[in-house]
Amino acid sequence: MKKFVICLLAFLICGCRRTIDFDFDTYKQSLHISNGYFYNLCFENDSVLPNGKSYEGALFLIWQDSLCVPPAKIDLNNYIPNGYIVSRGGIPSSERKIKLKANSTYTISSTGLGAVECRIKAWTNRNGKILKAVKYWL
Q1: d(CA 62, CA 86)
Q2: What are phi and psi of 45, to 5 degrees?
Q3: Which pLDDT score, from 0 to 100, does residue 53 have?
Q4: Which of 45, 8, 34 is CA-nearest to residue 123?
Q5: Cβ neighbours of residue 94 under 8 Å, at least 6 residues apart?
Q6: What is the phi/psi pair of residue 64, to 5°?
Q7: N or C: more exposed end of the chain, with fewer CB within 10 A?
Q8: CB 107 within 8 A of CB 120
Q9: pLDDT tens-digit map of 51-65
Q10: Is the pLDDT of residue 136 over 60?
């Protein structure tokens, strides 16, 4: 009986893994998630300065509103939806818009509720708009 319970628990734990699948629409400059919501979102600038230091700290959006469901779409042209706590490089920030640096490379990732992480590698143009985005899995 003990082996059965252990096997059942292992099956349930492995079977409950979710996959977060999201895409970036370069025309609309927006992120769309197909099977969930954006609980945690990170925009990490992969570009480095000539001295090897980070160009800027990562922008984190963490959903904290317990009464509402997080959005399934984030539009980079609009304000960050209410309900997110925003931090830049781990320090609380009052930023209300997602502004990406020009001519940079970013990794956009989203995780939440034990899901498998999906990432998007994105390249910005001289205006800070994403012109190319490629999705990959961890």
Answers
A1: 7
A2: -75, 115
A3: 83
A4: 45
A5: 86
A6: -125, -5
A7: N
A8: yes
A9: 888 889 999 999 999
A10: yes
